[in-house]
Automatic annotation (TrEMBL):
This is DUF4595 domain-containing protein. Keywords: Signal. Residues 1-20 form the signal peptide. The lineage of its organism: Bacteria, Pseudomonadati, Bacteroidota, Bacteroidia, Bacteroidales.
Length: 361
């Protein structure tokens, strides 16, 4: 009996060792789509040029919250946005075309890879098209972002080259820990950082985003341009469940705003997509609170990617999104004897093609 127990214990230890080596008992890493760090409603308003900053992700599909071997994503609302990927999940090109009522103004971003399949540079071009009796078009190259690598294949530096000024205007350094995780990526020039909107990001010991400083971005839910400091929170599974923000408008006197303190909370559905977003902020110096809850419902394709996302919330908040970005409709949801509760509804649809099927879903 003693010999049997000894053999059983040895077998269990052997299996346990094999499982550990094969990572069977390890939790699957949960990655937050990078768009969620900025706003759960603004999927395609997040500049695609931010994509290479999130170096602790396995590929660009995961960064954009996509499943399967996605080839293209096209989103058509009041404006048109598209993403093109390589067969191994690298972002190849993004296009944004804004319809301004007879005038289209957009931005194209191209991602260039070298013979070693490493991202070498990113080129951005501004486009302008005027429709009418005649059509005039031009494209202007705005800047080129050049990446350099360590001997171990890690991104070491990102340089921002201005074509107009014909010079490098800013640089960002990437620093790694002993496990190879990037812990900080910081611009070397503070003034240029603020002018050009270059992200300053730090990560925790698991490689998750711990802090983002945005020096030049529109504040969600408001038409003000300002700087934001973002601190995410995660649950035990690794899902991001909230963000605390401090937002400071650039033109504070015009808006009579000193700062905006924000708390966001998120709940998820069984597919891992946002089901509910609770928002609370306080505007200083007037101590004016602003609260809303936005719910999300989806239609999915066979790969588990959503092809339609409907966002429902207070009209006051959704109104600016509907007029500026999305097609949607208002629905009145109130009973005469109850407190007024007008809801707005915005639907975002997208078409996705895949490398494995070549079929548009």
């Amino acid at each position: 009996m003693k010999r049997k127990n000894t053999l059983l214990l040895a077998a269990l230890l052997l299996v346990g060792s094999a499982c550990r080596e094969g990572n069977i008992f390890e939790k699957k890493q949960v990655y937050t789509p990078i768009t969620l760090y900025f706003s759960p409603m603004e999927d395609y308003l997040t500049p695609s040029g931010y994509t290479p900053d999130f170096v602790n992700y396995p590929n660009d599909w995961v960064k954009w919250g996509l499943k399967g071997k996605v080839k293209t994503v096209t989103c058509k609302t009041l404006h048109t946005f598209s993403l093109d990927f390589t067969e191994d999940g690298k972002l190849l090109q993004s296009d944004f075309v804004g319809d301004g009522g007879g005038v289209s103004e957009g931005k194209q971003t191209f991602f260039h890879y070298n013979d070693s399949n490493r991202l070498e540079s990113i080129t951005s071009k501004g486009t302008f098209t005027m429709m009418g009796g005649r059509t005039s078009r031009f494209a202007e190259t705005l800047e080129n972002k050049i990446l350099s690598y360590t001997p171990f294949g890690k991104v070491e530096k990102r340089s921002y080259y201005d074509f107009k000024g014909k010079k490098v205007v800013s640089e960002k350094q990437y620093h790694y820990d002993d496990k190879g995780l990037c812990r900080t990526m910081s611009p070397t020039d503070d003034n240029s950082n603020k002018k050009r909107g270059i992200l300053d990001i730090s990560s925790d010991e698991q490689g998750r985003v711990a802090d983002i400083y945005e020096p030049n971005l529109r504040i969600p839910g408001r038409l003000t341009i300002g700087e934001r400091h973002i601190v995410p929170a995660y649950d035990e599974e690794g899902r991001m469940i909230g963000i605390k923000e401090l937002a400071i408008p650039h033109n504070m006197e015009a808006y009579n705003i000193d700062s905006i303190r924000v708390e966001n909370q998120y709940k998820y559905n069984d597919k891992g997509d946002i089901a509910e977003w609770s928002y609370h902020d306080i505007v200083y110096p007037g101590n004016r609170p602003n609260d809303f809850v936005c719910t999300f419902s989806y239609v999915y394709d066979d790969q588990g990617n959503w092809t339609s996302k409907t966002m429902t919330g207070g009209i006051a908040y959704l109104h600016s999104f509907m007029n500026s970005y999305y097609r949607g409709s208002y629905t009145i949801n109130r009973v005469p004897s109850e407190e007024r509760n007008d809801l707005g509804e915005v639907t975002l649809t997208r078409e996705i093609t895949y490398y494995n099927t070549e079929t548009e879903l």
